[in-house]
Amino acid sequence: MTKEHLVFIGFFIVFSTQAMVLIGHFRFYTKGYEIVTVQGISMQPTLKNGQKAIINHNIPEANLTNMIIIFSDANICHRCIKDEGQWLTLKGDNNVSFEQATRDEIKAIFIKVTQDPFLDSVTLGLQ
């Protein structure tokens, strides 16, 4: 192999890897995902203040019981204890009181805590 062939192959590998990263990252956002920082203690010990988390703004039609959801204009994050169609009963893992919300008030669902937001965004985007 000539030096020119090796340079071309190297360039192709670097370029194709960078292209996959950009495609994955772009698709992450177009699929409704977002990286957020957890604020507050209402979901401790499941979610801790300051952790990075991935959420998705595409709300499934399925039953939301046991899912962690973000709702209201204040972006409150609680677990869905009971899904009764339009009405949801919610509670923070660290709270004693329950709250009610409608499906229309749901902003997003919790996907996972992330240690590496960039890598997770590319991975989820490429799925």
Structural write-up:
The structure is a single chain. By secondary structure, the chain is α+β, with helices and mostly antiparallel strands. The chain has a single domain (3-126), classed as Umud Fragment, subunit A (Ribbon). It contains two helices and seven strands, in the order αβββββββα. The mean pLDDT is 86.
Give the SSE layout.
Blueprint: H1 3-30, E1 33-37, E2 52-56, E3 68-71, E4 76-84, E5 87-91, E6 99-102, E7 106-113, H2 117-126
Antiparallel strand pairs: 1-2, 2-7, 3-4, 3-7, 4-5, 5-6
What is the number of helices? 2
Task: Report the C-alpha radius of gyration, rounded.
Answer: 20 Å
CATH topology: Umud Fragment, subunit A
CATH level-two architecture:
Ribbon
Give the CATH class. Mainly Beta
Distance between the termini: 36 Å
Overall structural domain count: 1
Roughly what percent helix? 25-40%
Coarse structural class: alpha+beta
Q: What can be said about the biggest beta sheet?
A: 7 strands, antiparallel
Describe the global form: elongated
